[in-house]
Amino acid sequence: MQRMADLNNESLTETIRGIMETNYTMGRLTRVKQVLGGYSNKSFAVWLSTRDHTKRYHLRLYNPEVLENEVVFEHALVNHLRSNGFTLAAGIIPCIDGTTLVETPPPDNHPAKRAIWALFEFLEGEDKYCWTDTDLTNKELTSAAEVLADLHHCGHGFEKPPGTNRAQPRIMEFMSTFEKTFSGALEQTEDLRCSQLFRDHINAIQRALEGLSSFEIKFRGMPELPIHCDFHPGNLRFSDQKCVGVLDFDWAKIDYRLFDVALALVYFTSIWEKQAAGMKADSFSFFLRNYNETCRRPPIISPLTRQEQGYLAPMISVANLYVLHWEATYCLRSPRSDDDEHYMFVNHTIGLLNWIAENEVELEQWIKKSLN
Asked: Which long-range contacts (CB under 8 A, 24 or more apart) does 275-278 make?
């Protein structure tokens, strides 16, 4: 859940003031708070005032590793979604010159030659959950599933600007790089709990990777469209048990629609109380059924095809490995002091990996029951 703290950094405050004064005309900067949390970008709430009113906006400082063409891709997609009626994504505020990103010299602790910023509308609603929360109400779960279907619908017809894309490849190509990352995590020289977890379970991880390698051919032909690629409870805002905002499109890309659905099922329905407790059957069926039924309403995208239904179970395994890869990457980059926190994440995801392998038949039954 997002928290805010006053920005006690005079240099950074002046950088933000310069960005506002030079590139925008919505008023004078009167307040800045850092939005805490998040693993990729840094975010700030900024208040701009005129004679008549004061309005809050969301200012993002992109990860130093992000490429400019990735940001242009993200902004073009968000603008496309909004033009197609998906109003739950924060609108991007254009600069005076019509562009949507600002470049400055890097602020302190930003290891890049330049910094990339963008200003967004501030989405209202409550940040009720983080990405490890799965105890949504049925109404919230229904709304989340409907919103994902609507997002997929509104992405129809998107054409990425020439020369832009996500640096991260499509999921099956990306998965071919996972083994190298997992090996790096277990081979860390420091005595870390996370590294020991990978050492203890590397055989199970490798079996999962090997078992899924053949699906690259089997998945071909499934619907591809713009996907969020990080659709979890912590990236949604709620009001009266209804999703009223979707955050963080910086991981969005064009890929299999089924991957986005499978990743959402991993995020929204896995059990966090125990290491190998698996997924919640009722929540799983509830989310999947509502997503599929919502897809029957729009005239453009269809409900899950027979091919997608037949391969949803292995795609869930792919999605869980994708989360594990993300966790392994942060384990490799994070200081030793974060080891206990990352251990909790990795322990959960490896537990889910083992549960999926042991419950393939049950998972297939859940899928058939939800979609028939």
From this structure: 275/347, 275/348, 275/350, 275/351, 276/351, 276/352, 276/354, 276/355, 277/351, 277/355, 278/352, 278/355, 278/356, 278/359
